[in-house]
Design goal:
This protein is of the alpha+beta class. It has a domain of 80 residues: Ribosomal protein L21 (SH3 type barrels, Roll). Helices cover 13% and strands 25% of the residues. The chain has a 5-stranded antiparallel beta sheet, with no helix packed on it. The longest helix is centred in the last third of the chain and has 9 residues. The relative contact order is 0.18.
C-alpha cells in the first residue's frame, strides 16, 4: 500500500467548505473593509476556501489576532497560540473585525456625511 498524504488541507472537509448559498467569488465587502483597518485592531481569522494560496493554516481558524502591520496588500497579524506569539501573514479575504457592528459604526459609518443646505 502507498502511504497516505497529509497535505495542507488534510482533515478539513467541513472547515474549508462553503454551503451552496455561499459558493462563488465573494464581493468587494472584505476588500473595502480592509481600507479601514489600523495597526492595533483585533481581527478574527475566518479562512475563505476560495483563496487557498493566501490562507493561513487551518489551525488558526477562529483565532483572534492583532494587526501589527502591512506587507503590500497582505496583513501581518500577531496571534497568541498555545502561549507563544505567532506571526501570520494573510490577505483581507481571510480576516474580519472582531466586532463587525461596532467597527462599521465607529469607522465606516462614523465619518461625517455632507448634508444639503435645504434644511
Amino acid at each position: 500500500m502507498v502511504a497516505r498524504t497529509h497535505g495542507y488541507r488534510f482533515k478539513s472537509r467541513k472547515l474549508l467548505s462553503k454551503t451552496p448559498r455561499e459558493k462563488g467569488r465573494p464581493g468587494l465587502f472584505k476588500w473595502l473593509l480592509a481600507r479601514y483597518y489600523r495597526v492595533g485592531d483585533k481581527l478574527a481569522i475566518d479562512i475563505d476556501p476560495v483563496y487557498v494560496s493566501t490562507a493561513p493554516h487551518k489551525r488558526y481558524q477562529g483565532r483572534v489576532g492583532t494587526l501589527i502591520g502591512w506587507r503590500g496588500r497582505a496583513l501581518v497579524l500577531e496571534v497568541n497560540f498555545m502561549g507563544e506569539r505567532r506571526i501570520i501573514i494573510t490577505t483581507p479575504e481571510h480576516v474580519k473585525p472582531l466586532n463587525l457592528e461596532e467597527f462599521l459604526k465607529e469607522r465606516v459609518l462614523g465619518k461625517p456625511i455632507i448634508q444639503s443646505e435645504a434644511n
